[in-house]
Each structure stands twice: as C-alpha cells, then as structure tokens.
UniProtKB/TrEMBL annotation:
GO terms for cellular component: membrane. This is Nucleotide/sugar transporter family protein isoform 2. It comes from the Eukaryota. InterPro entries: Sugar_P_trans_dom, TPT_transporter. The lineage of its organism: Eukaryota, Viridiplantae, Streptophyta, Embryophyta, Tracheophyta. Keywords: Membrane, Transmembrane, Transmembrane helix. It is found in: Membrane. The chain crosses the membrane at residues 56-76, 88-112, 124-144, 150-170, 177-196, 202-222, 243-265, 271-293, 324-340. It is a multi-pass membrane protein. Residues 65-337 form the Sugar phosphate transporter domain.
Length: 342
C-alpha cells in the first residue's frame, strides 16, 4: 500500500507529467530527467524504510543493551560490596561517575564525543538534572546497603505512579485506561514476587522513600531533554556529570561510614572496583539511550522486568526456591508488561 501511494503521487507530480509529454526530439533530455526522478523516488523509499527500521530497532536495541548491562552490574556490585568488602555506596557511585567522566574526556579529546545541540536547554535544567542524578544513584546504592533487594523493589514500584503524575502536571501527558490497568498489574505482580524478602531498617526505609521522587524526576528529565531538545546521550552525560560529581562529594560525609582511606586498596580490590565503574558507565549510557528512545515509564517497567527475570532465572538455573507466591507474582508482572506497551 505504501509503495502504491508513493508511485501514484510520483506520477501525478507536475514535473513528471511535463517530462512524460515531451516529444521524441527531447528523448535524451527526457531519459536523463526520468533517471534523476527515478533516483529521487528510490532514495525516498529507502529513507522511509530506514526510518521505519530505526523506529522499531532503536528502542529494542537500547532496552536490550540496558537490560544486559543492568543484570551484569548487579552481580559485580554485589561482589564489590560483599566479597571485596567495599562498604561505601556513595563513594562507589562517585567512582562510577568519575570514571565515566574520564572516559568521555578521552572521547572528547579525539573529537569522538557528539557536540551539544543548539537547543533551548537552560543552565538551570542541566543543573537540576545533575542534582537529581546524584540523588537518584547515590540514594539507590545506600538503600541497597541497608535494605533487602525485595524492599528496594517494593519502593521502586512507587516510581511508576510518580512518573505518571509528574508527566501529567508538567507536560499534560495522559495515560490510557488500558495502560493504567497494565501498569497496575505489573506493580501488583512485582509486589507479590518480592513480598517474601522485605528486610529493612528505619534509616534504610527513610532513604528508600527519599529516593522515589529524584528517581522519577531523573527519568523524566533524561527522556524529555533527548526527545524534545535533541540531546544525545553522551553529550548530555558530558554536560551533567561534573555537577553530579560535585553533589556526590557533598553526600559522602552524611551517608557513607568513615574509613574509606583505610580500605585495603590492593590490585585485586582496585580492579574489581574499576570493573564496576566501567559497567557503571555502560549502565548510565545505556539507560540514557533507552530513555531517549522510549519513555520514562518504559524504563521503569524494564527495571521491573529485570527483577522478574532474575528471580525466575535463579529458580530455573540455580535451583533456588523463592517460593510459589514469588514465582506466580513474577509471571503476573511479566504478563502485565506484555500489555503495557509504554
């Protein structure tokens, strides 16, 4: 159907009709003109086809990239915090962003970093994004230190309605009733899947609750700046990372225990931390790509899908037994995700 419509529009164009009506004496010119128009039409078809592939493959590739990196960094960070014994979550976050900034500086030195767009972004919007990035990532790692993974996921459920409410207030975005039902099913499924692992402290619970609003704001700003103001993921990371580093430094004395300088910085421990930092750069980059290609709600749903896959994967591959309730909850959540299409 698309090809038929395009060919019809091509044939009824004024310049094409004029060429087709030319006399035989103008055969050479007519042939050349028809060849030029044929090339133009083919290029148009290829551009339409390429655009369709980009709209389909772009979000899928970005979400897949983010999913793989997110699963990998969970195991690496668990290794760093538990086996290596690096009990300084905010300082670990600071190392992640410092390594990310260093890698981007290298790319910038070789002119491989995308230039900032001539957009309408104000310094205030970039400054705000830098602050919420430090709060979102730093508080998330602190929450994982003092709470169980199950409680962390329960707190993450509250991010979804926060994003829906904030996008309605700021951008007048409305969510269809079907999507509301699907997101509700996803949230209930994740809650059931993680209800057997609710261990937390009072301080950890307060940190988890304080993390919800920065996390929602962070995802909304990343998605909006890329989609509405044409920022690329790396260029936006390059502009906001110094601000994030500054605020992470101010958070370390309040949220990290003392003794980071007394940590045993041998080759093995330092290599593990640097590996975690490199994956942190990939996680930040892939997350920004996913937010730019889809939406803030899609990124939250992807995180909940990751939780369910890890739970089911541990059950089938490693014979862990989270319980029938948790397994059923994971399947309910995945069923809801298949209908959300956010």
């Amino acid at each position: 159907m698309l090809c038929s419509r395009e060919i019809f529009k091509f044939l009824v164009r004024k310049d094409v009709r004029k060429i087709l009506k030319r006399k035989d004496s103008d055969a050479g010119q007519r042939g050349k003109a028809l060849e030029d128009l044929r090339s133009s039409l083919c290029n148009k078809f290829y551009s339409v086809d390429s655009s369709k592939r980009q709209r389909i493959c772009g979000p899928v590739a970005a979400l897949t990239f983010n999913f793989i990196v997110a699963v990998g960094i969970i195991f690496i960070n668990k290794w760093v915090l538990k086996t290596v014994g690096f009990q300084f979550p905010v300082f670990l976050t600071f190392i992640h962003y410092a390594v990310s900034w260093a890698l981007m500086a290298i790319l910038n030195t070789f002119s491989l970093l995308p230039a900032s767009p001539p957009s309408k972004s104000t310094p205030l919007s970039l400054f705000t994004l830098g602050i919420v990035m430090s709060l979102s990532t730093g508080l998330a790692n602190v929450s994982l230190t003092y709470n169980s993974v199950g409680f962390y996921q329960m707190a993450k459920i509250a991010v979804t309605p926060s994003i829906v409410l904030a996008e309605f207030i700021w951008y007048k975005k409305r969510v269809t009733f079907c999507k509301v039902i699907a997101l509700t099913v996803v949230s209930i499924g994740v809650a059931i899947a993680t209800v057997t692992d609710l261990q937390f402290s009072l301080f950890g619970a307060c940190v988890a609750m304080a993390w919800i609003i920065p996390s929602a704001t962070n995802k909304i700003l990343w998605s909006n700046l890329q989609q509405q103001e044409n920022w690329t993921a790396l260029s936006l990371m390059w502009k906001t990372t110094p601000i994030t580093l500054l605020f992470l430094v101010s958070m370390i004395p309040f949220l990290d225990p003392p003794g980071v300088l007394a940590f045993h910085w041998n080759f093995h421990n330092t290599s593990a931390i640097l590996l975690s930092a490199f994956l942190g750069f990939l996680l930040q980059w892939s997350g920004a790509l996913a937010l730019g290609a889809t939406s803030a709600i899609s990124h939250v749903v992807l995180g909940q899908f990751k939780t369910c896959v890890l739970l089911l994967g541990s059950y089938y591959l490693f014979e862990s037994n989270p319980g029938t309730t948790s397994i059923c909850g994971a399947f309910v959540a995945i069923g809801g995700m298949s209908f959300s299409r956010t």
